[in-house]
Structures are given as C-alpha cells and as structure tokens.
Please model this.
Amino acid sequence: MSPALPGPIVQALSAHTTLSLAYVDDGTPQACAVFYAPSPSGTLLFLSSPSTVHGAALAAQQPAARVAFTVQRDQQEWTTISGVQGRGFVRRVSEQGEAAAREVYLRAFPYVAEDPRLVKAVDSAAWWELVPGWLRVIDNSRGFGHKEEWTAPAG
Model:
C-alpha cells in the first residue's frame, strides 16, 4: 500500500478482504459487497462481471465513478469496533494494468487460482480499482470513538 497512507489505515485495509461499496445507478443509491485486494499504490482492486448491476453502473460512469465504502469485520462489539470508511472513485483497470492487478488479487486470494469455476469467473470479469480520496479509520480499542483521517493530496 502507499506509504502516504497512515499506518493504522494501511493496517485496517490489509486486515480485511471485503468492502461494502455504495454507488449511484441511474440516480438511485445502491450498495454491494466485493472482495478486494490492496495494491502497492494504495488503490483497492476488485473484480465484477459486466453483467452485474454494480458492474454495469460503474461502467456507465467511466472514466471515474464516485463511490463511498466501508471495510470492517462482522460481529464486533462496541468497545472493539474497528474498520475504515472512505470516499473516492472507481475506474476500470487499463489493459496494460490487468496482469499486475491479477497478480496482486491472486496473491490475496490464492484459492481462486485453484478452482476452475473461479478461474473462469475471473477470466470473464472486469478489473476495477477504487482510488481513495478520503479515509477514516475507526478503532474503539484505542478509546471509544477513536478516529484517524486521511485526505489525498490535491492534484
């Protein structure tokens, strides 16, 4: 992940595998869950079939679909809640970047390459990257309501 991100945010994003993605489809708010892998550049890589509702909505909003998201573990208690809230945009991974995205993703989810059904799904899916613009890590184990925020540098 990008060294520009604060350590607690990098740790929280690296500790999880699923994010809840909020986006807009034809003026209507929608949400879905996707498996993601943090890239060395600080983006979050995920796959989506172009035939899914979110895949079609993201494709229709290219070159960059504005999104919000959360990352957290299920079944937490109030005193130990931890996770990340974020906003940013989603863009299609370029053809030139697909091999690198696949490598990062399969390193995070090695079992995918071992299951022919999943390999077929990956081969037919579109590669996306979520580029964070604002992140907030929440970690109640460091004190109730403890938050740290990061905003991408302008430019």
About this structure: Residues 98-108 form the longest helix (11 residues). The two ends are 19 Å apart (CA to CA). The chain is about 25% helix and 40% strand. The CA atoms of residues 68 and 87 lie 4 Å apart.
